[in-house]
Amino acid sequence: TGSQLREIFDKINNLLSGKSVQSGGRTVSVTQHPQGLDFVHYKLAEKFVNQGEEEVASHHEAAFPIAVVASGIWEIHPRVGDLILAHLHKKCPYSVPFYPAFKDGTSLEDYQRMLGYQVKDSKIEQQDNFLKRMSGMIRLYAAIIQLQWPYGNRQGTHPHGLNHGWRWLAQMLNMEPLADVTATLLFDFLEVCGNALMKQYQVQFWKMMLLIREDYFPRIEAITSSGQMGSLMRFKQFLEKCLHQKEIPLPKGSLQPSFWRS
């Protein structure tokens, strides 16, 4: 509910502001240790990204409540925002977007890790699990850039707003596509913040959508094997439907005004 989310936000904000907060049956404050605030900044940012990787990956609609808190904390405590981006870019290079190139002398395991795969005991994770985690993080990012915390006296400009989403999309389309990954993440991104981008950029946005369908989609198709068709077809259906209806629907789970009265 909206009231629960406010409680969570206030608790995090109070902790970062140096006030005492109840946690796990104890009273804690960042002033108890000289590096207390640095530590909390770092761990909090890491936790937000982990929630994208785990919670949002399994429940897409969770992106919105998590993102609105992250965005609000980012606005008041910019250092947390810098660290959210740092954790996100490390775990999911596609959020930059960046496709790490293989360099001589790099072991295969290290290279897989650079690409975002989890490697345990020389075993690389399954592709569907990898894509699910990347999707969760991209969906969280796509939700953060369009949401602002609705309370508080600042209500200034968004600390990392939709212009970053527009830039991300443009950069993705300037890169050679990767099988499976590109179609999946473009779909995730546009499903979550396509509606917001459409409202903000209007004619320019539809030009971008046409470019994707006419020029970029065939390039993804050309490198996609028969076993990787699922993500491609889902993306194609989404594109066709949006272009046909000249509309990108609001994403499922987006926070309506009524949510804040709950």
TrEMBL record:
<dbReference type="Pfam" id="PF07817">
    <property type="entry name" value="GLE1"/>
</dbReference>
<dbReference type="GO" id="GO:0005543">
    <property type="term" value="F:phospholipid binding"/>
</dbReference>
<keyword id="KW-0963">Cytoplasm</keyword>
<dbReference type="GO" id="GO:0015031">
    <property type="term" value="P:protein transport"/>
</dbReference>
<keyword id="KW-0906">Nuclear pore complex</keyword>
<dbReference type="GO" id="GO:0000822">
    <property type="term" value="F:inositol hexakisphosphate binding"/>
</dbReference>
<dbReference type="GO" id="GO:0016973">
    <property type="term" value="P:poly(A)+ mRNA export from nucleus"/>
</dbReference>
<dbReference type="GO" id="GO:0031369">
    <property type="term" value="F:translation initiation factor binding"/>
</dbReference>
<keyword id="KW-0813">Transport</keyword>
<keyword id="KW-0175">Coiled coil</keyword>
<dbReference type="GO" id="GO:0044614">
    <property type="term" value="C:nuclear pore cytoplasmic filaments"/>
</dbReference>
<dbReference type="GO" id="GO:0005737">
    <property type="term" value="C:cytoplasm"/>
</dbReference>
<dbReference type="InterPro" id="IPR038506">
    <property type="entry name" value="GLE1-like_sf"/>
</dbReference>
<keyword id="KW-0539">Nucleus</keyword>
<dbReference type="InterPro" id="IPR012476">
    <property type="entry name" value="GLE1"/>
</dbReference>
<comment type="similarity">
    <text>Belongs to the GLE1 family.</text>
</comment>
<keyword id="KW-0509">mRNA transport</keyword>
<keyword id="KW-0811">Translocation</keyword>
<comment type="function">
    <text>Required for the export of mRNAs containing poly(A) tails from the nucleus into the cytoplasm. May be involved in the terminal step of the mRNA transport through the nuclear pore complex (NPC).</text>
</comment>
<protein>
    <recommendedName>
        <fullName>mRNA export factor GLE1</fullName>
    </recommendedName>
</protein>
<keyword id="KW-0653">Protein transport</keyword>
